[in-house]
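Dear colleagues,

As part of the handover before I leave the project, I'm documenting each prediction I ran so the next person doesn't have to rerun anything. This entry is a single chain, and its sequence is reproduced below.
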Amino acid sequence: MTDPNKEFTDRLGRSGIFSTDELSEIAKTADTATFGSPEELAFELVRQKRLTEYQASVVCGEDSRLTIGEYIVLDKIGEGGMGVVFKARQRDSTSVAAVKVLPPNTMNDQSAIRGFKREVEAASRMQHLNVVGAIDSGEDEGQHYLIMEFVNRRNLARAVKNSGPLPILTAVNCISMQPRECNTRTNKASFTATSNPATC
């Protein structure tokens, strides 16, 4: 019979976020402590601040990969038709960035890949005080990504969900910034092909 905690630590290994020594330490904890399920072990790692809640949910789910290039995924910021945006930390650093990737179902869609590359090129040329800066871009195991400046504020979808519709002047200001996506707290915008409240 498969040990669920052993399976969980194996998934942690595949996630790519821990070193070999760290994984060995976690495996020992799983062996010596009484955890009734992988979820309990995950909760303990979250309590110890070794995993974020998002990371724990990913490792406990079907997908366990939590790295994009040299970045470790910390949380999911938002998702739209043109991509998924994550909060991520550069490995061996405290530097935090926003990482945008193509949705999994478009990884082999050449039209989507070309559109994403055009967006990357446009973002790399755009330099403005009110525009989120592009830092880097690349491809990791077939997954194209764009590294951007991280703005630590609510996205527009969350702001509307929590506080209701925007005041008319604020909404007009956001619309006037298209095709750049706006952040209602800082007026920072990310230059993208489409505007989606969940990723701005």
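Confidence is low (pLDDT under 50) at residues 179-189, 191-195. Helices lie at 4-15, 20-32, 38-47, 53-60, 110-125, 156-163, 168-176.

All the best with the project,
I.
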